[in-house]
Structures are given as structure tokens and as C-alpha cells.
């Protein structure tokens, strides 16, 4: 199955938001990307990409099989996986979310937006716009 709307996600590692380079170039971390975002949409997109990559790896499915407009539970995400996502958001993105946020019936993109709004890595003025 070739999903052209998700082809930009090919080659993303779990904690990066830049495609992996064949020459072995260092991948850009989510923290580096969030440090220079200029608006909340840009931050949400970066977090969506990182979250999709992480869920694909955790659930052992191809990146192309994860549709960011669907709910996480539609990919078999249970409360234990939700706890891992909460811990990842806190550690990597400095965002305090809870398991109920992850398990809520909202699309992955909406969860990423929620994570972005609560992230201490994103300047306050960007989060409040």
C-alpha cells in the first residue's frame, strides 16, 4: 500500500523528525526542531511526525500504516502503551500529559496539538497564539 500523503514520514526514526540520510548524517532531534518553531502548527506537525514514528515502532507496523487522522486505540494502543507515550512526551518534549489524553477518542494530530500546547520546549508566546 502506497500512501502518498504519508510518504514524507518514510525513514523517520523514533525520536527524530528528519528523514534518515543514506550517508549516515545525524538526524535532527525533536527538541532541536521545537526550539526553533515559529507557530503552534509547525510544532504540532513535528510532534505528529515523531509520535507516528514512535507508535509505528512500538506497535511493530510500517510507518505508512499509521494514519495521523485516526485514533491511537485503532492501532492497538492500550493503557500500557499510553503510559509509554506519556513518559516519552514528558522526557523528550517536556509536555505534561496524562494517560486519558492519549486514550481519548481524538485523532493523533489532535493529541500532538495537545502535547505541543503543554510543551515547555515551545516558547510561551508560540503556545498561546
UniProtKB/TrEMBL annotation:
PROSITE patterns in UniProt: CARRIER, PHOSPHOPANTETHEINE
Q: Which Gene Ontology terms cover its molecular function? A: phosphopantetheine binding
The record ties this protein, via Gene3D superfamilies, to: ACP-like
Q: Which UniProt keywords are listed?
A: Phosphopantetheine, Phosphoprotein
- UniProt-listed SUPFAM superfamilies: ACP-like
Pfam short name (any one):
ACP_SdgA_C
Ranges for domain Carrier? 42-119
Q: Return the protein name.
A: Highly reducing polyketide synthase cla2
- Which organism encodes this protein? Colletotrichum liriopes
Amino acid at each position: 500500500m502506497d500512501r502518498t500523503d504519508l510518504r514524507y514520514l518514510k525513514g523517520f526514526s523514533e525520536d527524530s523528525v528528519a528523514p534518515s540520510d543514506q550517508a549516515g548524517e545525524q538526524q535532527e532531534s525533536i527538541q532541536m526542531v521545537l526550539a526553533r518553531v515559529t507557530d503552534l502548527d509547525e510544532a504540532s506537525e513535528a510532534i505528529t511526525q515523531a509520535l507516528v514514528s514512535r507508535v509505528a515502532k512500538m506497535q511493530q507496523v510500517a510507518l505508512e500504516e499509521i494514519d495521523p487522522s485516526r485514533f491511537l486505540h485503532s492501532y492497538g494502543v492500550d493503557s500500557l502503551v499510553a503510559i509509554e507515550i506519556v513518559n516519552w512526551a514528558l522526557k523528550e518534549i517536556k509536555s505534561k500529559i496524562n494517560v486519558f489524553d492519549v486514550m481519548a477518542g481524538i485523532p493523533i494530530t489532535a493529541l500532538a496539538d495537545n502535547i505541543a500546547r503543554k510543551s515547555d520546549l515551545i516558547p510561551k508566546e508560540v503556545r498561546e497564539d
